[in-house]
């Protein structure tokens, strides 16, 4: 995959809302894009990095013979009422 063909591009400017250095770098590098206040989406490059990290973790889990436990990250609103 050529970087020039990616959907997300790097930027020099970042919004004032990005206070943490890691947040600023992820925005500048074209890994994530802010959708709304507190909501972000992975751009293709960020998703590729996440999948690579998942692959490395799964390989290490398989080496040790452990089991993978996946938790839900979405919860029903009615469950908290």
Main sheet overview:
2 strands, antiparallel
Percent helix, as a range, is 25-40%
Beta-strand fraction estimate:
5-15%
Structural class: alpha+beta
Order of helices and strands: HEEH
Mean pLDDT: 81
Distance between the termini: 46 Å
Can you tell me the residue ranges where pLDDT is under 50 for at least 5 consecutive residues?
none
Q: What count of domains describes the coordinates?
A: 1
Radius of gyration: 17 Å
The largest beta-sheet arranges its strands as 1-2
Explain this structure to me?
The protein has 81 residues and is an alpha+beta fold. The protein has one domain. Helix content is 37%, strand content 11%. It has a two-stranded antiparallel sheet. It is extended.
Compact overview of the structure:
The chain has 81 residues and is α+β, with helices and mostly antiparallel strands. It has 2 helices and 2 strands. It has one domain (9-66).
Using brief descriptors, characterize the structure shown.
2 strands; two-stranded antiparallel sheet; extended
Topology, pairings included?
Layout (H helix, E strand, L loop, with lengths): L20 H9 L2 E5 L2 E4 L1 H21 L17
Antiparallel strand pairs: 1-2
């Amino acid at each position: 995959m050529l970087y020039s063909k990616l959907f997300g591009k790097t930027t020099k400017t970042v919004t004032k809302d990005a206070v943490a250095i890691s947040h600023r770098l992820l925005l500048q590098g074209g890994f994530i894009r802010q959708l709304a206040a507190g909501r972000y989406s992975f751009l293709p490059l960020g998703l590729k990095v996440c999948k690579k990290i998942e692959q490395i973790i799964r390989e290490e889990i398989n080496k040790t013979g452990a089991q993978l436990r996946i938790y839900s990250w979405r919860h029903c609103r009615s469950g908290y009422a």
